[in-house]
Amino acid sequence: MAKVKNIYVCTDCGGQSPKWQGQCAHCQCWNTLVETVIDPASASVNRFGLVPTSAKLQRLSEVHAREETRMSSGVAEFDRVLGGGLVPGGVVLIGGDPGIGKSTLLLQSLAAMGSKRKVLYVSGEESAQQIALRAKRLALDAHEVHVLAEINLEKVQSILLEEKPEVAVIDSIQTLYSPALSSAPGSVAQVRECAAQLTRVAKSGSTTIILVGHVTKEGALAGPRVLEHMVDTVLYFEGDTHSSFRLVRAFKNRYGAVNELGVFAMTEKGLKGVSNPSALFLSQHTGQVAGSCVVVTQEGSRPLLVEIQALVDEAHAPNPRRLSVGLEQNRLALLLAVLHRHAGIACYDQDVFINAVGGVRISEPAADLAVLMAVVSSLKNKPLPAKLVVFGEVGLAGEVRPVQRGQERLKEAAKLGFTHAMIPKSNQPKQSIEGLTVIAVDRIEEAVVKFRDAFA
Ligand SMILES: Nc1ncnc2c1ncn2[C@@H]1O[C@H](COP(=O)(O)OP(=O)(O)OP(=O)(O)O)[C@@H](O)[C@H]1O
Ligand SMILES: [Mg+2]
Q1: Would you say the CB of residue 101 lies under 6 angstroms from ligand 1?
Q2: How many angstroms is it from 35 CA to the middle of ligand 2?
Q3: In testing the pocket of ligand 1, which one of 102, 241, 245 has its CB within 8 Å of the most ligand atoms?
Q4: Cβ(104) – ligand 1 distance below 6 Å
Q5: CA atoms within 13 A on the CB side of 138
């Protein structure tokens, strides 16, 4: 058999070099060379060509497409983010902070599936005993879950091909290593190689593979970006480790909608799905407080009510601070500028802190108006009216723009007992919603005036 050869390939220009160098000799980029295997035995196979190829042309109508049957993962909220369940032969990557509950969720899911199908848990981080201990602590019926504590890619691959489990979890992709490469496990070359090989196993048989991925300090998935392209679905676990709520968000999904959200509560007995999470992120104030405003965000198909808190306090340093938790920091600076320019409310001598309660991360601009209302409320030290929800995007020209699915958001707010809603004019419902008084605004200055009227 021909010898396996390693070369170094530039990730920028694709230039090759026989040995590692700091600078690519072809494009002069620094630190872009990554070790790659040239395997003559499989030279005819594109290493990252993940699907077995056939050399003849086919019409799509001639391709036999099986009715796509999804398998339930056994955990309802997990199914929801996956877009209805696992797809046979699909590859799912799930990332998240250390200790957030990735292994817990996947063990629960495998245990639930175990009675119906053959499932395998490959762990490079914990021994079989530790997994058994966790299953015992979570009181799971995990008799049928096969476990394998192994980090050698070739061994894992051969077991997958031999045993043909329907679902296999690899915990985690960073601990796997391919002996064909000399770089350390967890390095870019290793992660890419292992993911490519496993993806090929998944696509050739019909094993569904779930990869657990670590995240970097910045919160991105550790490993090359190309990893996210190789897999079918990318999920992120997020949430505040200090609170018990955990969110699983779809970031990419070839077989379903993204931005679907699974909500869990971490309990002693593992992760429990929260099927009606809309009121989860409202804090329970006994009286009314200044600087608090409730926004209705839309996460996938579900509206979610989140309390936004703002604290505006006199700055004692020449540069006032702007800090936001759960919302985008740059957006805050932009919104404060809009508030100054169009509504004449200045915060340049004030520190501004904002926080989305409960560790949720709000990425949609629909929270803009609520952020500004919370800031104004804190600055004036006047609480907003009780039972008020606010949503709407604020543009640089001071206009309040409409958001998607306004009607649904309003209905959810009414369901939870809110009586007033400040919304963009274009989102005004044609028919009134029972129990809800709608205050429609067109511009930010109008919103501020309406706010002032509330205290007149
Ligand atoms: N006895 C317990 N009671 C309640 N919660 C527990 C208990 N033991 C562990 N946990 C919870 O389980 C979490 C660990 O979950 P898990 O090991 O699944 O995380 P992980 O995402 O796989 O982490 P890593 O990336 O380190 O493997 C802990 O952070 C803790 O919140
Ligand atoms: Mg783990």
Answers
A1: yes
A2: 27
A3: 102
A4: yes
A5: 25
Q: How far apart are the first and last CA of the chain?
A: 87
Residue 98 Cβ < 6 Å to ligand 1 = yes
* CA nearest ligand 1 atom 25, residue: 98
Over residues 141-155, mean pLDDT: 92
| Cα of 196 from ligand 2 centre, angstroms | 22
Q: How far is CA 410 from CA 236, 407, 448, in A?
A: 28, 5, 21
For residue 102 and ligand 1, the question of a CB distance below 6 A is answered with yes
Domain termination site, one of 222, 240, 275 = 275
pLDDT score for 284: 72
Do 354 and 228 share a structural domain?
no
User: pLDDT per residue over 389-406, tens digit each?
Assistant: 999 999 999 999 999 989
**Highest mean pLDDT out of 6-15, 40-49, 218-227:** 6-15
Return the CATH number at 104. Answer: 3.40.50.300
Does 440 map to a domain? Answer: yes
Name the band, by pLDDT with cuts 50, 70 and 90, for residue 423.
very high
This prediction has a pTM of: 0.77
179 in contact with ligand 1, CB cutoff 6 A: no
**Residue 326 belongs to domain spanning:** 292-453
Q: Are 312 and 349 in contact (CB under 8 A)?
A: no
Query: What own/partner pairs with CB < 8 Å and gap ≥ 24 does 155-160 have?
Result: 156/122, 156/198, 157/197, 157/198, 157/201, 159/120, 160/120, 160/198, 160/201, 160/205, 160/207
| Number of domain units in the chain | 3
Between CA 276 and CA 303 the distance in angstroms is 10
Pocket test for ligand 1, best of 235, 266, 269, 272 (most atoms within 8 A of CB): 266
